[in-house]
Amino acid sequence: QVQLDESGGGTVQPGGSLRLSCRASGGAFRFGRPFSDYAVAWFRQAPGKAREYLAGISGTAHLTDYADSVKGRFTISRSNPDYTASLRMTRLSPSDTATYYCAVNRDYRELRDEIEYWGRGTQVTVSS
């Protein structure tokens, strides 16, 4: 089992930036299983809208993938020794207001469609 805890959400003005973090823990890592066994993705969901894939990163961080809606504005990264992943968000607009979720899958190729574990989410509000 993998537990994912997001942090870093809050309220920011249009044009501003935020950095979200996701820390992994749980029984899956109890016997030394490395965090690099899991690819990580970030999703978001705004009220009344479907959950949207934003970005993904492979276990070794050699591969990254972005949705067109955030390409060039958001950057995904990870630190395997710390069991953490991050999403750096820049040039935020009110349309980025949503709950942001961290998620993992052992297969990077399935990140957009299949998720093994989800975090509980962190709220991001972009407003003046």
Overview in brief:
The protein is mainly beta and 128 residues long. The protein is 0% helix and 46% strand.
Main attributes?
4-stranded antiparallel β-sheet, single chain, globular, mainly beta
Verbal overview:
By secondary structure, the protein is mainly beta. It contains no helices and eleven strands. Strands 2, 4, 5, 6, 9, 10 and 11 form a seven-stranded mixed beta sheet that branches. Strands 1-3-8-7 form a four-stranded antiparallel beta sheet, with no helix packed on it. A hairpin with a 6-residue loop joins strand 4 and strand 5.
Tell how many strands the DSSP assignment holds.
11
**Envelope shape:** globular
Number of helices: 0
Major sheet: 7 strands, mixed
Whole-number radius of gyration?
14 Å
Category from helices, strands and their pairing: mainly beta
Distance between the termini: 40 Å
Low-confidence stretches: none
The percent range for strand residues is over 45%
Topology overview:
Layout: E1 3-7, E2 10-12, E3 18-25, E4 39-45, E5 52-57, E6 64-66, E7 74-79, E8 84-89, E9 98-105, E10 117-118, E11 122-126
Parallel strand pairs: 2-11
Antiparallel strand pairs: 1-3, 3-8, 4-5, 4-9, 5-6, 7-8, 9-10, 9-11
